[in-house]
């Protein structure tokens, strides 16, 4: 093909790979107008029609509508402007599709009822502000009215999910499950109890000094016992319990007596809620954090060991 030759629709079809019907369709809508007509009235096209048709096919493959394509070809709008707007529209569609896929995947995995599916769909569609309000309500229930000096501002922040603008499917699934969990009245009460125990611990002694968390004390002492296969009911477990209690007593400047052991037992029993560990794991997925360490085995070993060693 050269610049002066005019070509039939059939020629264009062979050159572009489009069908004659498609080229005629674009011509009828003014997207690829003919340069001239033959004496018999057949349309004839110049070489620029090939470039226009190649661009039309590319833009159609990218999902642009014919009206927008015509504006691009007629230079009413620039191609970069159209590309940017279309990319943003696609981003919205992708987010929507990810939300739908996450809900459907969760429904299939859980065997959910229609009512549960409806709830999951509503949770997945919440805006950022709506998600924030939902979580703030949960955290207010957990920490509202407790002593601010207990460090709850930092704890609240560490418990707040931040779903990305373009989340992965597993992040959406995690958000839906976490949102459902946060609305569970029994779980809310459980977290409130943990917060109250934390506030009570902080209120004893000098709350300005850095303290090791009781869970960390237990983990560090029980870990080797678990690795060694020590039975929590065996005499060998006495030393493990004593080591934990020695640290706990030192922190609160109190003797290791039955009252202190009951206090620690109550704290650990409140913390030993599998839903709490699940919340933290879901939170890590949503926020892109490393998965938290599980303390389930540590608690399962130490709680009965401690309970058996509280004087009656």
UniProtKB/TrEMBL annotation:
Matches recorded under SUPFAM superfamilies: Putative DNA-binding domain
Domain HTH merR-type: 6-75
InterPro entries assigned to the protein according to its UniProt record, in alphabetical order: DNA-bd_dom_put_sf, MerR-type_HTH_dom, MerR_fam
PANTHER family (UniProt xref): HTH MERR-TYPE DOMAIN-CONTAINING PROTEIN (PTHR30204:SF93), REDOX-CYCLING DRUG-SENSING TRANSCRIPTIONAL ACTIVATOR SOXR (PTHR30204)
Pfam families, per the entry: MerR_1 (PF13411)
CDD domains from the UniProt entry: HTH_MerR-like
Alphabetically ordered keywords of this record: DNA-binding
Protein name (record): MerR family transcriptional regulator
